[in-house]
Write a structure and sequence with these properties.
This protein is α/β, with parallel strands linked by helices. It contains 9 helices and 10 strands. The two termini are 32 Å apart. Bound molecules: 5'-O-[(R)-(carboxyoxy)(hydroxy)phosphoryl]adenosine (KG4).
Amino acid sequence: MSVVILGIESSCDDTSASVFRDEVVLSNCVANQDVHQAYGGVVPELASRAHQQNIIPVVEKAIRDAKVSKDEIDAVAFTRGPGLMGSLLVGTSFAKGFALANNLPLIEVNHLHAHVLAHFIKEDKDDNNQPKFPFLCLLVSGGNSQIVHVKSHLDMEIIGQTIDDAAGEAFDKCAKVMGLPYPGGPLIDKLAKEGNPDAFQFSKPRIADFNYSFSGLKTSFLYFLRDQLKVNANFIEENKADICASLQKTIIDILMDKLIKASKATNIKQITLAGGVSANSGLRNRVEELAKSNNWVTYVPKFSYTTDNAAMIAINGYYKYLKKEFVKQDIAPFARLEF
Ligand code: KG4
């Protein structure tokens, strides 16, 4: 018998709902929040209010698009954390209410595990292009930069992580210094395509083990621009593409250096990317190049499953459903939920 899961995601600034039948996605609806653009970053209170407006229409659409009836749903999976408390509260409260009203089991999902499991989303039941266990996942988003050792769907361990900023923050904060709108990552990616990645050099960290640091790069980038602008007030305008290409190359170099080390140390050659920054075209190309020279088998999720989405919550919920890992109605969201 098949299992139908409703997944709900509201950890940051995307309200999303998705319906799955077993491992196959039937619908995945995402409502983005443009309201934050004017502020150069996500404003938690505005995010929470927008989630409240979006949650019911998004869930309704996800169920309608999936062509299932509410009665067919077997369980509700929701993001418990980590994330913004006001945002998480909306999705959690909705999931609890929906489960209570329809007498369904509730499944809590860790947002970061869900990013890793995005690789198991099938668009049809014959889709068999999933990574084999064990694999390494480079999880890079606006809030995280981690190398995860994934042993099974529900057993994974962080073996390296950032000690300060995340890779996405490095993209976004450097973009802000350049006067680009939020989120800067996709814009840097676009501009970098026209630029010379070797035009400028920025500092790279020396951090132990498989850990990352991006705060030094951000500072070196800020000082570099400040010094150049003293000489030429149009420096950014005249060199935008080269600056973006050089910055992007530096971030990718930092990320890949530790991923190569982790692969060698664990002897794992199944390599996956996850999280919003894995949408970066330069990063995707580099991983493909490295796959050839390191005998890696690589997996990169579809763009729609790299940024926040409820499909990854529903697939995680599905695996937990099979193990009957349910939570009670007194569950509360947790902004700093551990991995
Ligand atoms: O996973 P995500 O949607 O949200 C969380 O952080 O949870 O990731 C968002 C991050 C932002 O920092 C955004 O700038 C970055 O992903 N991002 C990119 C690209 N697309 C999104 N960074 C670089 N290149 C991209 N193409």
